[in-house]
Design goal:
Elements lengths: L2 E5 L3 E3 L4 E8 L8 E6 L6 E6 L6 E3 L7 E6 L4 E6 L8 E7 L6 E2 L3 E6 L1
Parallel strand pairs: 2-11
Antiparallel strand pairs: 1-3, 3-8, 4-5, 4-9, 5-6, 7-8, 9-10, 9-11
């Protein structure tokens, strides 16, 4: 049974930094493409960043490029999202995802709130 548990979200002021973590169990993330998504109130879930299972290929939405960094520690079976220079529009529930398409698994999410 796949379980993804996100943590690290909190209320911060604009310009602050946060690091989100996603600890996986039931899978080895080294075998999976991993990603972060987010969903703001009243909006659809959107892509934030992805990291290929090779660990070397990363992709970012334009809205976070240059501010967010996705990384993984395969030994700890953990995915990270370093978020710098946070903006109020980054406020959302952030979800960790393993795999792709119909086989994608999701975490329960962690709330990030950025005040202006």
């Amino acid at each position: 049974q796949v379980q993804l548990v996100e943590s690290g979200g909190e209320l911060v002021q604009a310009g602050a930094s946060l690091r989100l973590s996603c600890v996986a169990s039931g899978i080895k993330i080294s075998w999976y493409d991993m990603a972060w998504f987010r969903q703001a109130p009243g909006k659809e879930r959107e892509f934030v960043a992805a990291n290929r299972r090779t660990g070397t290929d990363t992709f970012y939405d334009d809205s976070v490029k240059g501010r967010f960094t996705i990384s993984r520690d395969n030994a700890e079976n953990t995915l990270y999202l370093q978020m710098n220079n946070l903006k109020p529009e980054d406020t959302a529930v952030y979800y960790c995802a393993a795999g792709s398409g119909s086989n994608r698994s999701w975490g329960q999410g962690t709330q990030v709130t950025v005040s202006s």
